[in-house]
Amino acid sequence: MSDRNPRDRKPPFRRPGGKPFDKGRPAGGHAAGRRPAWRDRDSGADDGPVILYGWHTVTLALQNPGRHIRKLLLTENAARRLAEDNIKAPIAPEIVRPSQIDQLLGPDAVHQGLLAEADPLPSPDIETLAAEGMILVLDQITDPHNVGAIMRSAAAFAVKAIVTTNRHSPEATGVLAKSASGALELVPLVTVQNLARALTTLNERGFMTVGLDSEGGDNLAAIALRQPLALVLGAEGKGLRQLTRETCSHVARLDMPGEIKSLNVSNAAVLALYIGATRLGLMG
Amino acid sequence: MSDRNPRDRKPPFRRPGGKPFDKGRPAGGHAAGRRPAWRDRDSGADDGPVILYGWHTVTLALQNPGRHIRKLLLTENAARRLAEDNIKAPIAPEIVRPSQIDQLLGPDAVHQGLLAEADPLPSPDIETLAAEGMILVLDQITDPHNVGAIMRSAAAFAVKAIVTTNRHSPEATGVLAKSASGALELVPLVTVQNLARALTTLNERGFMTVGLDSEGGDNLAAIALRQPLALVLGAEGKGLRQLTRETCSHVARLDMPGEIKSLNVSNAAVLALYIGATRLGLMG
Predict the structure, then answer these.
(1) CB atoms A264 and B261 under 8 Å
(2) Which of B220, B153, B170, B155 is nearest to B50 (CA)?
(3) H/E/C letters for each residue in chain B?
(4) Which chain B residues are within 8 Å of A29, Cβ to Cβ?
Protein backbone atom coordinates (compact mmCIF):
# COMPACT_ATOMS: atom_id res chain seq x y z
CA MET A 1 0.00 0.00 0.00
CA SER A 2 1.33 3.36 -0.97
CA ASP A 3 1.14 4.91 2.45
CA ARG A 4 2.78 2.02 4.20
CA ASN A 5 6.32 2.65 5.27
CA PRO A 6 8.51 -0.22 3.98
CA ARG A 7 10.73 0.14 7.03
CA ASP A 8 7.74 -0.68 9.18
CA ARG A 9 7.03 -4.14 7.85
CA LYS A 10 5.96 -5.78 11.07
CA PRO A 11 4.00 -3.36 13.18
CA PRO A 12 2.66 -4.83 16.43
CA PHE A 13 -0.91 -4.57 15.16
CA ARG A 14 -2.33 -3.54 11.88
CA ARG A 15 -5.75 -2.09 11.28
CA PRO A 16 -8.29 -4.30 9.50
CA GLY A 17 -7.61 -2.12 6.47
CA GLY A 18 -4.10 -3.49 6.42
CA LYS A 19 -2.40 -0.50 7.97
CA PRO A 20 -0.72 -0.27 11.33
CA PHE A 21 -2.97 0.64 14.18
CA ASP A 22 -2.88 4.27 14.89
CA LYS A 23 -4.04 5.50 18.24
CA GLY A 24 -7.22 7.46 18.15
CA ARG A 25 -8.12 6.35 14.65
CA PRO A 26 -10.99 3.93 14.93
CA ALA A 27 -10.73 0.71 12.97
CA GLY A 28 -13.37 -1.58 14.32
CA GLY A 29 -16.42 -1.14 12.22
CA HIS A 30 -18.95 1.63 11.83
CA ALA A 31 -16.46 3.85 13.50
CA ALA A 32 -14.01 3.44 10.68
CA GLY A 33 -15.45 6.55 9.11
CA ARG A 34 -14.62 7.09 5.50
CA ARG A 35 -12.26 4.15 5.29
CA PRO A 36 -13.85 0.77 4.74
CA ALA A 37 -12.90 -1.63 7.52
CA TRP A 38 -11.55 -4.10 4.99
CA ARG A 39 -9.10 -3.92 2.16
CA ASP A 40 -10.09 -4.48 -1.41
CA ARG A 41 -7.52 -6.79 -2.87
CA ASP A 42 -7.40 -4.68 -6.00
CA SER A 43 -4.84 -2.63 -4.15
CA GLY A 44 -2.32 -5.34 -4.83
CA ALA A 45 -1.18 -5.34 -1.23
CA ASP A 46 0.19 -8.58 0.11
CA ASP A 47 -1.78 -10.46 2.72
CA GLY A 48 -0.92 -8.78 5.99
CA PRO A 49 -1.91 -10.09 9.38
CA VAL A 50 -5.58 -10.28 10.18
CA ILE A 51 -7.25 -8.68 13.17
CA LEU A 52 -9.60 -10.80 15.25
CA TYR A 53 -11.67 -9.52 18.16
CA GLY A 54 -14.67 -10.62 20.18
CA TRP A 55 -15.24 -13.76 22.23
CA HIS A 56 -16.32 -16.27 19.56
CA THR A 57 -14.00 -14.93 16.88
CA VAL A 58 -10.87 -15.06 19.05
CA THR A 59 -11.60 -18.21 21.07
CA LEU A 60 -12.29 -20.28 17.97
CA ALA A 61 -9.07 -18.94 16.43
CA LEU A 62 -7.11 -19.88 19.58
CA GLN A 63 -8.52 -23.41 19.34
CA ASN A 64 -7.81 -23.77 15.61
CA PRO A 65 -4.46 -25.60 15.28
CA GLY A 66 -4.20 -24.30 11.71
CA ARG A 67 -4.33 -20.64 12.79
CA HIS A 68 -1.02 -18.99 13.64
CA ILE A 69 -1.57 -16.33 16.32
CA ARG A 70 1.10 -13.63 16.30
CA LYS A 71 -0.06 -11.55 19.21
CA LEU A 72 -2.85 -11.69 21.78
CA LEU A 73 -4.22 -8.91 23.96
CA LEU A 74 -6.59 -9.86 26.75
CA THR A 75 -8.26 -7.95 29.55
CA GLU A 76 -8.05 -9.54 32.98
CA ASN A 77 -11.69 -10.54 32.76
CA ALA A 78 -11.23 -12.15 29.37
CA ALA A 79 -8.14 -14.02 30.59
CA ARG A 80 -10.14 -15.34 33.54
CA ARG A 81 -13.01 -16.46 31.29
CA LEU A 82 -10.54 -18.28 29.02
CA ALA A 83 -9.06 -20.06 32.04
CA GLU A 84 -12.55 -20.98 33.30
CA ASP A 85 -13.42 -22.42 29.92
CA ASN A 86 -10.07 -24.20 29.82
CA ILE A 87 -9.10 -22.54 26.54
CA LYS A 88 -5.33 -22.43 26.17
CA ALA A 89 -3.69 -19.68 24.13
CA PRO A 90 -0.81 -20.84 21.92
CA ILE A 91 1.18 -17.73 22.89
CA ALA A 92 1.50 -15.73 26.09
CA PRO A 93 -1.10 -12.95 26.15
CA GLU A 94 -0.46 -9.34 27.05
CA ILE A 95 -2.87 -8.33 29.78
CA VAL A 96 -4.30 -4.90 29.01
CA ARG A 97 -7.06 -2.56 30.14
CA PRO A 98 -10.28 -2.57 28.07
CA SER A 99 -9.58 1.02 27.06
CA GLN A 100 -6.34 -0.06 25.39
CA ILE A 101 -8.29 -2.33 23.05
CA ASP A 102 -10.90 0.40 22.57
CA GLN A 103 -8.13 2.70 21.42
CA LEU A 104 -6.87 0.18 18.88
CA LEU A 105 -10.27 -0.77 17.46
CA GLY A 106 -12.35 2.35 17.93
CA PRO A 107 -15.31 2.79 20.27
CA ASP A 108 -17.91 0.81 18.30
CA ALA A 109 -16.09 -2.54 18.14
CA VAL A 110 -17.60 -5.03 20.58
CA HIS A 111 -14.33 -6.76 21.44
CA GLN A 112 -15.31 -8.30 24.79
CA GLY A 113 -11.73 -7.93 26.00
CA LEU A 114 -10.02 -10.04 23.32
CA LEU A 115 -7.90 -8.89 20.37
CA ALA A 116 -5.57 -11.09 18.33
CA GLU A 117 -3.29 -10.55 15.40
CA ALA A 118 -2.95 -13.69 13.30
CA ASP A 119 -1.80 -14.98 9.95
CA PRO A 120 -4.49 -15.32 7.30
CA LEU A 121 -5.63 -18.90 6.83
CA PRO A 122 -4.51 -20.58 3.61
CA SER A 123 -7.00 -20.73 0.73
CA PRO A 124 -7.53 -24.32 -0.43
CA ASP A 125 -7.48 -25.04 -4.16
CA ILE A 126 -10.91 -25.50 -5.68
CA GLU A 127 -9.74 -28.81 -7.21
CA THR A 128 -9.21 -30.22 -3.72
CA LEU A 129 -12.77 -29.63 -2.47
CA ALA A 130 -14.61 -32.86 -1.76
CA ALA A 131 -17.57 -33.28 -4.14
CA GLU A 132 -20.20 -33.62 -1.42
CA GLY A 133 -22.67 -31.60 0.61
CA MET A 134 -23.16 -27.89 -0.04
CA ILE A 135 -20.82 -25.04 -0.84
CA LEU A 136 -21.52 -21.32 -1.28
CA VAL A 137 -20.16 -19.16 -4.08
CA LEU A 138 -20.18 -15.37 -3.57
CA ASP A 139 -20.03 -13.14 -6.66
CA GLN A 140 -18.50 -9.82 -5.58
CA ILE A 141 -20.44 -9.33 -2.37
CA THR A 142 -18.49 -6.46 -0.86
CA ASP A 143 -20.13 -5.59 2.47
CA PRO A 144 -18.07 -7.18 5.27
CA HIS A 145 -21.05 -7.38 7.66
CA ASN A 146 -23.01 -9.32 5.06
CA VAL A 147 -20.11 -11.63 4.13
CA GLY A 148 -19.44 -12.25 7.83
CA ALA A 149 -23.10 -13.08 8.53
CA ILE A 150 -23.10 -15.40 5.49
CA MET A 151 -20.00 -17.21 6.78
CA ARG A 152 -21.63 -17.62 10.19
CA SER A 153 -24.76 -19.11 8.60
CA ALA A 154 -22.56 -21.32 6.41
CA ALA A 155 -20.91 -22.75 9.54
CA ALA A 156 -24.36 -23.27 11.08
CA PHE A 157 -25.45 -25.28 8.02
CA ALA A 158 -22.23 -27.31 7.78
CA VAL A 159 -21.27 -25.79 4.43
CA LYS A 160 -18.05 -27.38 3.13
CA ALA A 161 -16.46 -24.23 1.69
CA ILE A 162 -17.11 -20.69 0.51
CA VAL A 163 -15.73 -19.61 -2.86
CA THR A 164 -15.12 -15.91 -3.51
CA THR A 165 -13.11 -13.83 -5.92
CA ASN A 166 -9.73 -12.39 -4.96
CA ARG A 167 -10.88 -9.03 -6.16
CA HIS A 168 -14.00 -7.13 -5.05
CA SER A 169 -14.31 -9.20 -1.89
CA PRO A 170 -13.64 -8.03 1.62
CA GLU A 171 -10.71 -9.59 3.44
CA ALA A 172 -11.28 -12.13 6.19
CA THR A 173 -10.38 -9.77 9.01
CA GLY A 174 -11.85 -7.07 11.27
CA VAL A 175 -15.59 -6.50 10.91
CA LEU A 176 -16.02 -9.51 8.63
CA ALA A 177 -14.30 -11.79 11.15
CA LYS A 178 -16.40 -10.36 13.99
CA SER A 179 -19.66 -10.82 12.05
CA ALA A 180 -18.58 -14.37 11.17
CA SER A 181 -18.43 -15.12 14.91
CA GLY A 182 -15.71 -17.76 14.58
CA ALA A 183 -16.90 -19.21 11.27
CA LEU A 184 -13.57 -18.27 9.63
CA GLU A 185 -12.01 -21.13 11.61
CA LEU A 186 -14.68 -23.61 10.53
CA VAL A 187 -15.46 -22.99 6.86
CA PRO A 188 -12.59 -22.98 4.33
CA LEU A 189 -12.52 -19.83 2.21
CA VAL A 190 -11.47 -20.55 -1.36
CA THR A 191 -10.41 -17.42 -3.22
CA VAL A 192 -10.22 -17.57 -7.00
CA GLN A 193 -9.12 -15.24 -9.74
CA ASN A 194 -12.01 -15.93 -12.08
CA LEU A 195 -15.42 -16.93 -10.78
CA ALA A 196 -16.81 -18.22 -14.09
CA ARG A 197 -13.78 -20.50 -14.46
CA ALA A 198 -14.29 -21.74 -10.90
CA LEU A 199 -17.94 -22.49 -11.66
CA THR A 200 -16.90 -24.38 -14.81
CA THR A 201 -14.54 -26.45 -12.67
CA LEU A 202 -17.37 -27.14 -10.21
CA ASN A 203 -19.71 -28.13 -13.06
CA GLU A 204 -17.06 -30.50 -14.46
CA ARG A 205 -16.54 -32.01 -11.02
CA GLY A 206 -20.23 -32.88 -10.80
CA PHE A 207 -21.56 -30.02 -8.68
CA MET A 208 -25.08 -28.79 -9.35
CA THR A 209 -24.45 -25.01 -9.55
CA VAL A 210 -27.55 -22.95 -8.73
CA GLY A 211 -27.44 -19.18 -9.12
CA LEU A 212 -29.98 -17.23 -7.07
CA ASP A 213 -31.71 -14.44 -8.95
CA SER A 214 -35.08 -12.81 -8.40
CA GLU A 215 -35.68 -13.28 -12.16
CA GLY A 216 -34.80 -16.98 -11.99
CA GLY A 217 -37.02 -19.35 -13.94
CA ASP A 218 -37.80 -21.73 -11.07
CA ASN A 219 -38.48 -21.44 -7.36
CA LEU A 220 -35.50 -22.89 -5.44
CA ALA A 221 -37.84 -24.82 -3.13
CA ALA A 222 -39.45 -26.51 -6.16
CA ILE A 223 -36.26 -27.67 -7.92
CA ALA A 224 -34.97 -31.23 -7.54
CA LEU A 225 -31.70 -30.38 -5.76
CA ARG A 226 -28.88 -32.90 -5.48
CA GLN A 227 -25.43 -33.18 -3.89
CA PRO A 228 -22.85 -31.83 -4.37
CA LEU A 229 -24.64 -28.48 -4.50
CA ALA A 230 -23.11 -25.04 -5.03
CA LEU A 231 -25.42 -22.10 -4.23
CA VAL A 232 -24.28 -18.92 -6.00
CA LEU A 233 -25.15 -15.46 -4.63
CA GLY A 234 -24.60 -12.05 -6.21
CA ALA A 235 -24.24 -8.62 -4.66
CA GLU A 236 -27.30 -6.65 -3.66
CA GLY A 237 -28.36 -4.29 -6.39
CA LYS A 238 -26.05 -5.71 -9.02
CA GLY A 239 -27.03 -9.35 -8.58
CA LEU A 240 -25.16 -12.10 -10.42
CA ARG A 241 -22.88 -10.93 -13.18
CA GLN A 242 -23.97 -12.11 -16.61
CA LEU A 243 -21.13 -14.60 -17.07
CA THR A 244 -21.72 -15.97 -13.58
CA ARG A 245 -25.40 -16.51 -14.32
CA GLU A 246 -24.66 -18.15 -17.68
CA THR A 247 -22.14 -20.54 -16.14
CA CYS A 248 -24.51 -21.81 -13.43
CA SER A 249 -26.27 -25.03 -14.32
CA HIS A 250 -29.54 -23.60 -12.93
CA VAL A 251 -30.85 -20.15 -12.01
CA ALA A 252 -33.54 -20.05 -9.34
CA ARG A 253 -35.52 -17.49 -7.37
CA LEU A 254 -36.75 -17.52 -3.78
CA ASP A 255 -40.55 -17.25 -3.85
CA MET A 256 -42.07 -15.25 -1.02
CA PRO A 257 -45.68 -14.23 -0.45
CA GLY A 258 -45.22 -10.53 0.42
CA GLU A 259 -44.94 -7.28 -1.52
CA ILE A 260 -41.15 -7.06 -1.33
CA LYS A 261 -39.54 -9.71 -3.51
CA SER A 262 -35.87 -9.42 -2.58
CA LEU A 263 -34.01 -9.86 0.69
CA ASN A 264 -30.82 -8.62 2.24
CA VAL A 265 -28.15 -10.87 0.70
CA SER A 266 -27.25 -12.61 3.96
CA ASN A 267 -30.96 -13.22 4.59
CA ALA A 268 -31.29 -14.72 1.09
CA ALA A 269 -28.21 -16.86 1.74
CA VAL A 270 -29.51 -18.40 4.98
CA LEU A 271 -32.87 -19.14 3.39
CA ALA A 272 -31.19 -20.85 0.43
CA LEU A 273 -29.00 -22.85 2.84
CA TYR A 274 -32.03 -23.98 4.84
CA ILE A 275 -33.91 -25.00 1.70
CA GLY A 276 -30.80 -26.76 0.35
CA ALA A 277 -30.00 -28.58 3.61
CA THR A 278 -33.62 -29.64 4.03
CA ARG A 279 -33.98 -30.96 0.47
CA LEU A 280 -30.62 -32.75 0.54
CA GLY A 281 -31.38 -34.44 3.86
CA LEU A 282 -28.47 -32.64 5.56
CA MET A 283 -30.44 -31.29 8.53
CA GLY A 284 -29.14 -34.10 10.74
CA MET B 1 -31.93 17.21 23.01
CA SER B 2 -29.48 19.22 24.97
CA ASP B 3 -27.34 20.38 22.09
CA ARG B 4 -30.24 21.40 19.90
CA ASN B 5 -30.74 25.08 19.60
CA PRO B 6 -34.36 25.89 20.52
CA ARG B 7 -34.33 28.76 18.06
CA ASP B 8 -33.72 26.24 15.32
CA ARG B 9 -36.85 24.17 15.75
CA LYS B 10 -37.58 23.46 12.12
CA PRO B 11 -34.36 22.88 10.26
CA PRO B 12 -34.76 21.99 6.57
CA PHE B 13 -33.35 18.52 7.22
CA ARG B 14 -32.45 16.71 10.34
CA ARG B 15 -29.88 14.01 10.70
CA PRO B 16 -31.15 10.49 11.34
CA GLY B 17 -29.99 11.08 14.87
CA GLY B 18 -32.68 13.72 15.17
CA LYS B 19 -30.40 16.72 14.80
CA PRO B 20 -30.26 19.20 11.96
CA PHE B 21 -28.04 18.24 9.10
CA ASP B 22 -24.71 19.80 9.38
CA LYS B 23 -22.57 20.12 6.32
CA GLY B 24 -19.53 17.93 6.35
CA ARG B 25 -20.77 15.82 9.25
CA PRO B 26 -21.74 12.49 7.85
CA ALA B 27 -25.04 11.05 8.93
CA GLY B 28 -25.80 8.22 6.60
CA GLY B 29 -24.45 5.09 8.18
CA HIS B 30 -21.00 3.69 8.80
CA ALA B 31 -19.71 7.15 8.25
CA ALA B 32 -21.54 8.46 11.26
CA GLY B 33 -18.50 7.71 13.36
CA ARG B 34 -19.05 7.77 17.07
CA ARG B 35 -22.66 8.80 16.84
CA PRO B 36 -25.11 6.00 16.18
CA ALA B 37 -27.19 6.73 13.11
CA TRP B 38 -30.38 6.42 15.11
CA ARG B 39 -31.68 7.97 18.26
CA ASP B 40 -32.39 5.92 21.33
CA ARG B 41 -35.78 7.02 22.54
CA ASP B 42 -34.48 7.07 26.08
CA SER B 43 -33.33 10.55 25.28
CA GLY B 44 -36.92 11.69 25.63
CA ALA B 45 -36.67 13.65 22.41
CA ASP B 46 -39.90 14.13 20.50
CA ASP B 47 -40.40 12.35 17.22
CA GLY B 48 -38.69 14.55 14.72
CA PRO B 49 -38.88 14.11 10.98
CA VAL B 50 -37.43 10.94 9.52
CA ILE B 51 -34.80 10.83 6.82
CA LEU B 52 -35.38 8.52 3.87
CA TYR B 53 -32.89 7.89 1.07
CA GLY B 54 -32.29 5.35 -1.64
CA TRP B 55 -34.52 4.27 -4.52
CA HIS B 56 -36.78 1.70 -2.85
CA THR B 57 -37.00 3.55 0.45
CA VAL B 58 -38.01 6.87 -1.10
CA THR B 59 -40.18 5.64 -3.98
CA LEU B 60 -42.31 3.47 -1.69
CA ALA B 61 -42.69 6.43 0.67
CA LEU B 62 -43.77 8.67 -2.23
CA GLN B 63 -46.39 6.09 -3.17
CA ASN B 64 -47.66 5.63 0.39
CA PRO B 65 -50.73 7.88 0.79
CA GLY B 66 -50.30 7.63 4.57
CA ARG B 67 -46.79 9.10 4.50
CA HIS B 68 -46.49 12.88 4.70
CA ILE B 69 -43.42 14.04 2.79
CA ARG B 70 -42.08 17.39 3.97
CA LYS B 71 -39.22 17.86 1.58
CA LEU B 72 -37.77 15.99 -1.39
CA LEU B 73 -34.34 16.32 -2.94
CA LEU B 74 -33.73 14.59 -6.27
CA THR B 75 -30.87 14.51 -8.69
CA GLU B 76 -31.76 15.06 -12.34
CA ASN B 77 -31.21 11.36 -13.02
CA ALA B 78 -33.45 10.31 -10.17
CA ALA B 79 -36.17 12.75 -11.26
CA ARG B 80 -36.01 11.26 -14.78
CA ARG B 81 -36.25 7.70 -13.42
CA LEU B 82 -39.28 8.66 -11.34
CA ALA B 83 -40.95 10.16 -14.42
CA GLU B 84 -40.13 7.06 -16.48
CA ASP B 85 -41.66 4.84 -13.80
CA ASN B 86 -44.65 7.19 -13.60
CA ILE B 87 -44.12 7.78 -9.87
CA LYS B 88 -45.62 11.10 -8.82
CA ALA B 89 -44.19 13.00 -5.90
CA PRO B 90 -46.79 14.61 -3.59
CA ILE B 91 -44.63 17.74 -3.35
CA ALA B 92 -42.40 19.57 -5.79
CA PRO B 93 -38.85 18.24 -5.56
CA GLU B 94 -35.73 20.35 -5.34
CA ILE B 95 -33.37 19.27 -8.09
CA VAL B 96 -29.84 19.02 -6.68
CA ARG B 97 -26.43 17.68 -7.62
CA PRO B 98 -25.49 14.23 -6.21
CA SER B 99 -22.73 15.88 -4.17
CA GLN B 100 -25.32 17.96 -2.31
CA ILE B 101 -26.98 14.77 -1.05
CA ASP B 102 -23.55 13.29 -0.32
CA GLN B 103 -22.82 16.27 1.88
CA LEU B 104 -26.03 15.83 3.85
CA LEU B 105 -25.74 12.07 4.34
CA GLY B 106 -22.02 11.43 4.36
CA PRO B 107 -20.01 9.55 1.75
CA ASP B 108 -21.09 5.99 2.64
CA ALA B 109 -24.84 6.40 2.19
CA VAL B 110 -26.02 4.82 -1.06
CA HIS B 111 -28.75 7.37 -1.76
CA GLN B 112 -29.13 6.82 -5.51
CA GLY B 113 -30.06 10.47 -5.94
CA LEU B 114 -33.11 10.55 -3.65
CA LEU B 115 -33.48 12.07 -0.19
CA ALA B 116 -36.75 12.84 1.57
CA GLU B 117 -37.69 14.30 4.90
CA ALA B 118 -41.01 12.94 6.11
CA ASP B 119 -43.22 12.64 9.15
CA PRO B 120 -42.91 9.40 11.10
CA LEU B 121 -45.74 6.98 10.39
CA PRO B 122 -48.27 6.54 13.17
CA SER B 123 -47.88 3.51 15.45
CA PRO B 124 -51.09 1.45 15.51
CA ASP B 125 -52.41 0.25 18.86
CA ILE B 126 -51.70 -3.40 19.56
CA GLU B 127 -55.40 -3.91 20.32
CA THR B 128 -56.27 -3.02 16.75
CA LEU B 129 -54.08 -5.66 15.10
CA ALA B 130 -56.12 -8.26 13.26
CA ALA B 131 -55.67 -11.69 14.89
CA GLU B 132 -54.46 -13.45 11.75
CA GLY B 133 -51.32 -14.44 9.92
CA MET B 134 -47.88 -13.73 11.43
CA ILE B 135 -46.41 -10.84 13.35
CA LEU B 136 -42.87 -10.27 14.64
CA VAL B 137 -41.97 -9.02 18.11
CA LEU B 138 -38.47 -7.55 18.63
CA ASP B 139 -37.07 -7.47 22.17
CA GLN B 140 -34.54 -4.63 22.30
CA ILE B 141 -32.74 -5.34 19.05
CA THR B 142 -30.69 -2.18 18.73
CA ASP B 143 -28.66 -2.48 15.52
CA PRO B 144 -30.43 -0.44 12.81
CA HIS B 145 -28.99 -2.56 9.95
CA ASN B 146 -30.40 -5.69 11.56
CA VAL B 147 -33.79 -4.14 12.33
CA GLY B 148 -33.97 -2.79 8.78
CA ALA B 149 -33.12 -6.18 7.26
CA ILE B 150 -35.73 -7.81 9.52
CA MET B 151 -38.39 -5.32 8.36
CA ARG B 152 -37.49 -6.03 4.73
CA SER B 153 -37.84 -9.78 5.30
CA ALA B 154 -41.10 -9.15 7.17
CA ALA B 155 -42.50 -7.36 4.12
CA ALA B 156 -41.29 -10.24 1.92
CA PHE B 157 -43.20 -12.73 4.08
CA ALA B 158 -46.37 -10.61 4.34
CA VAL B 159 -45.97 -10.11 8.09
CA LYS B 160 -48.94 -8.13 9.46
CA ALA B 161 -47.02 -5.97 11.95
CA ILE B 162 -43.77 -5.61 13.89
CA VAL B 163 -43.97 -4.89 17.61
CA THR B 164 -41.00 -3.19 19.32
CA THR B 165 -40.37 -1.29 22.51
CA ASN B 166 -40.26 2.50 22.60
CA ARG B 167 -36.98 2.33 24.41
CA HIS B 168 -33.84 0.48 23.33
CA SER B 169 -35.02 0.30 19.73
CA PRO B 170 -33.63 2.25 16.81
CA GLU B 171 -35.91 4.81 15.19
CA ALA B 172 -37.47 4.15 11.81
CA THR B 173 -35.23 6.53 9.91
CA GLY B 174 -31.80 6.77 8.24
CA VAL B 175 -29.85 3.53 8.07
CA LEU B 176 -32.77 1.46 9.35
CA ALA B 177 -35.08 2.87 6.66
CA LYS B 178 -32.44 2.24 3.97
CA SER B 179 -31.86 -1.35 5.11
CA ALA B 180 -35.63 -1.87 5.20
CA SER B 181 -35.72 -1.03 1.48
CA GLY B 182 -39.26 0.39 1.57
CA ALA B 183 -40.65 -2.06 4.12
CA LEU B 184 -41.45 0.82 6.52
CA GLU B 185 -44.29 1.74 4.15
CA LEU B 186 -45.62 -1.82 4.03
CA VAL B 187 -45.40 -3.27 7.55
CA PRO B 188 -47.00 -1.37 10.46
CA LEU B 189 -44.58 -0.74 13.31
CA VAL B 190 -46.28 -0.99 16.70
CA THR B 191 -44.21 0.58 19.48
CA VAL B 192 -45.09 -0.31 23.05
CA GLN B 193 -43.91 0.77 26.48
CA ASN B 194 -43.76 -2.70 27.99
CA LEU B 195 -43.08 -5.76 25.88
CA ALA B 196 -44.25 -8.34 28.44
CA ARG B 197 -47.57 -6.53 28.72
CA ALA B 198 -47.85 -6.47 24.92
CA LEU B 199 -47.18 -10.23 24.79
CA THR B 200 -49.83 -10.79 27.46
CA THR B 201 -52.28 -8.83 25.30
CA LEU B 202 -51.34 -10.96 22.29
CA ASN B 203 -51.77 -14.16 24.32
CA GLU B 204 -55.21 -12.98 25.48
CA ARG B 205 -56.16 -12.15 21.91
CA GLY B 206 -55.41 -15.71 20.86
CA PHE B 207 -51.95 -15.33 19.35
CA MET B 208 -49.53 -18.24 19.69
CA THR B 209 -46.43 -16.40 20.97
CA VAL B 210 -43.20 -18.24 20.20
CA GLY B 211 -39.91 -16.91 21.58
CA LEU B 212 -36.77 -17.95 19.72
CA ASP B 213 -33.89 -19.01 21.93
CA SER B 214 -30.99 -21.34 21.26
CA GLU B 215 -31.82 -23.03 24.59
CA GLY B 216 -35.49 -23.49 23.61
CA GLY B 217 -37.05 -26.86 24.42
CA ASP B 218 -38.37 -27.62 20.93
CA ASN B 219 -37.19 -27.14 17.39
CA LEU B 220 -39.36 -24.48 15.69
CA ALA B 221 -39.74 -26.64 12.59
CA ALA B 222 -41.13 -29.49 14.73
CA ILE B 223 -43.78 -27.50 16.65
CA ALA B 224 -47.41 -27.48 15.58
CA LEU B 225 -47.66 -23.80 14.68
CA ARG B 226 -51.02 -22.08 14.24
CA GLN B 227 -52.38 -18.66 13.29
CA PRO B 228 -52.31 -16.00 14.55
CA LEU B 229 -48.60 -16.45 15.24
CA ALA B 230 -46.22 -14.01 16.93
CA LEU B 231 -42.50 -14.83 16.54
CA VAL B 232 -40.43 -13.14 19.26
CA LEU B 233 -36.72 -12.34 18.72
CA GLY B 234 -34.17 -11.06 21.23
CA ALA B 235 -30.97 -9.11 20.74
CA GLU B 236 -27.78 -10.91 19.77
CA GLY B 237 -25.71 -11.75 22.78
CA LYS B 238 -28.40 -10.87 25.32
CA GLY B 239 -31.17 -12.92 23.76
CA LEU B 240 -34.72 -12.71 25.09
CA ARG B 241 -35.08 -10.97 28.43
CA GLN B 242 -36.29 -13.29 31.17
CA LEU B 243 -39.75 -11.75 31.46
CA THR B 244 -40.15 -11.83 27.68
CA ARG B 245 -39.26 -15.51 27.60
CA GLU B 246 -41.63 -16.31 30.46
CA THR B 247 -44.52 -14.48 28.82
CA CYS B 248 -44.22 -16.34 25.49
CA SER B 249 -46.57 -19.31 25.17
CA HIS B 250 -43.70 -21.36 23.66
CA VAL B 251 -39.91 -21.06 23.47
CA ALA B 252 -38.27 -22.73 20.48
CA ARG B 253 -34.83 -23.09 18.96
CA LEU B 254 -33.73 -23.27 15.34
CA ASP B 255 -31.96 -26.59 14.80
CA MET B 256 -29.06 -26.52 12.38
CA PRO B 257 -26.59 -29.24 11.47
CA GLY B 258 -23.31 -27.31 11.72
CA GLU B 259 -20.85 -26.41 14.47
CA ILE B 260 -22.16 -22.88 15.02
CA LYS B 261 -25.56 -22.93 16.66
CA SER B 262 -26.62 -19.29 16.51
CA LEU B 263 -27.20 -16.93 13.62
CA ASN B 264 -27.08 -13.20 13.03
CA VAL B 265 -30.46 -12.01 14.36
CA SER B 266 -31.81 -10.96 10.96
CA ASN B 267 -30.76 -14.34 9.56
CA ALA B 268 -32.58 -16.09 12.43
CA ALA B 269 -35.63 -13.89 11.77
CA VAL B 270 -35.92 -14.74 8.08
CA LEU B 271 -35.51 -18.45 8.79
CA ALA B 272 -38.24 -18.33 11.44
CA LEU B 273 -40.49 -16.43 9.02
CA TYR B 274 -39.93 -19.02 6.29
CA ILE B 275 -40.64 -21.90 8.65
CA GLY B 276 -43.71 -20.08 10.02
CA ALA B 277 -45.09 -19.14 6.60
CA THR B 278 -44.51 -22.66 5.26
CA ARG B 279 -46.18 -24.38 8.23
CA LEU B 280 -49.11 -21.98 8.28
CA GLY B 281 -49.75 -22.36 4.57
CA LEU B 282 -49.01 -18.69 3.91
CA MET B 283 -46.47 -19.18 1.12
CA GLY B 284 -49.16 -18.46 -1.48
Answers:
(1) no
(2) B170
(3) CCCCCHHHCCCCCECCCCCECCCCCCCCCHHHCCCCCCCCHHHCCCCCCEEEECHHHHHHHHCCCCCCEEEEEECHHHHHHHHHCCCCCCCCCEECCHHHHHHHHCCCCCCCCEEEEECCCCCCCHHHCCCCCEEEEEECCCCHHHHHHHHHHHHHCCCCCEEEECCCCCCCCHHHHHHHCCHHHCCCEEEECCHHHHHHHHHHCCCEEEEECCCCCEEHHHCCCCCCEEEEEEECCCECCHHHHHHCCEEEECCCCCCCCCCCHHHHHHHHHHHHHHHCCCCC
(4) 30
Highest mean pLDDT among A16-20, A41-45, A51-55: A51-55
CB A51 within 8 A of CB A170: no
Q: Which residues of A touch B236 (CB under 8 A)?
A: none
pLDDT in tens, B80-137: 999 999 999 999 999 999 999 999 999 889 999 999 999 999 999 999 999 999 999 9
* pLDDT, tens digit (0-9, with 9 covering 90-100), for B161-218: 999 999 999 999 999 999 999 999 999 999 999 999 999 999 999 999 999 999 899 9
Tell me which chain A residues have a C-beta less than 8 angstroms from the C-beta of B283. 255-257
Q: State whether residue B267 sits within 8 Å of chain A by CB.
A: yes
What is the complex's ipTM, to 2 decimals?
Answer: 0.85
User: Which B residues, 140 through 199, put their C-beta within 8 Å of a C-beta on chain A?
Assistant: 145, 149, 152-159, 179, 181-183, 186
Task: Supply the pLDDT for residue A47.
Answer: 65
Could you say which of B154, B157, B271 has the minimum Cβ distance to residue A274? B271
